[in-house]
Design goal:
Layout lengths: L1 H43 L1 H10 L3 H15 L10 H48 L22 H5 L3 H10 L13 H14 L3 H41 L4
Protein name: Exocyst complex component Sec8
Family: Belongs to the SEC8 family.
InterPro entries: Sec8/EXOC4, Sec8_exocyst_N, Sec8_M
């Protein structure tokens, strides 16, 4: 009786096989459509999220979001006509994103690093004026300043596997959402370079740095000269006031 029941079940299942296959295919299609709809909803929020990331200078998150959104819009969602305006908008943003990153990189390379030196000299100047020491202002100590060259330990440059170590150090860089992104200049510059690499704009970055090098260095000299002149003038004014007879 059991054998007969099993045979009848087998026959019934065999009859229903095409129907079951059709339902199974429909289920897969609906699941795929739902995934696409979820993706479309997420992509529609990308411009707003991108603006927030750019405003808070979370450039790595912004780059990842933008690159993945453009890839989706030009890949699985290419046939969705309703997203054509968004596709054009995000594509143009992706094309211009590297210009913002290059500007930030230059700001940290030339302006932020020299500002630190200027602030130290001002602090030393204030200390010397408080002490009323007539001796010349001490030389600025730049040995402890974190420069891009100190991004890696000096020992890494001499080791045979220095290139691989350099790559891993850049790959390990991640954005910390709790900290100020610009607090550590070297890490911030690493994030910018990583973002530029994701945008595949490293050749353009190198060219921009080479083109702007002379101009930026001249600006450093100009700013430093103005700063030194202002400090010297202020110091002279203080000395002339101190030595005035009453």
């Amino acid at each position: 009786q059991v054998k007969e029941n099993l045979l009848s079940c087998k026959m019934l299942l065999h009859c229903k096989r095409d129907e079951l296959r059709k339902l199974w295919i429909e289920g897969i299609e609906h699941k795929h459509v739902l995934n696409l709809l979820d993706e479309i909803e997420n992509i529609k929020q990308v411009p707003q999220k991108l603006e927030q990331c750019m405003a808070s200078k979370r450039y790595l998150n912004a780059t990842d979001m933008l690159v993945s959104a453009v890839d989706s819009l030009e890949g699985p969602l290419l046939q969705v006509e309703g997203l054509s305006d968004l596709r054009l908008e995000l594509h143009s943003k992706k094309m211009n994103m590297h210009l913002v990153l290059i500007d930030e990189l230059h700001r940290h390379l030339y302006i932020k690093s020299t500002n630190r030196v200027g602030q130290r000299s001002k602090e030393k100047g204030r200390i010397s004026s408080l002490v009323k020491d007539a001796s010349p202002v001490p030389l600025m100590d730049v040995t402890n300043l974190s420069t891009p060259r100190k991004f890696l330990e000096t020992s890494q440059f001499s080791t045979p596997g220095s290139s691989s170590m350099r790559e891993t150090s850049l790959l390990e860089i991640k954005e910390d959402t709790d900290l100020d992104p610009e607090e550590n200049s070297t890490v911030f510059m690493g994030i910018l370079i990583k973002g530029l690499a994701k945008l595949k704009k490293i050749p353009e970055t190198v060219k921009a740095i080479q083109d702007r090098l002379e101009q930026e260095l001249k600006q450093i000299v100009k700013r430093s000269t103005t700063q030194v002149a202002d400090n010297g003038y202020q110091r002279g004014e203080n000395l002339s006031q101190e030595n005035q007879p009453r």
